[in-house]
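Backbone-to-sequence.
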């Protein structure tokens, strides 16, 4: 619950204080918990970035999500 609350506050801060139009999140393909949370927070999946992230000596595909200010509730 605390993790979700801080994400909700981050969205509000980004759109209201920083006046952002778009917030993005990228997660590793096997990170199902983060994908579920992003969907719950209203983010839309945009696709897969091939070999975009680099960890532990190798490249990894990342799934990208976004939330637009006009879609923020």
């Amino acid at each position: 619950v605390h993790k979700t609350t801080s994400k909700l506050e981050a969205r509000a801060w980004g759109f209201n204080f920083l006046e952002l139009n778009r917030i993005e999140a990228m997660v590793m393909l096997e990170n199902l918990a983060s994908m579920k949370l992003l969907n719950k927070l209203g983010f839309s999946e945009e696709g897969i970035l091939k070999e975009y992230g680099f960890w532990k000596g190798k490249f990894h595909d990342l799934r990208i999500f976004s939330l637009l200010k006009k879609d923020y509730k």
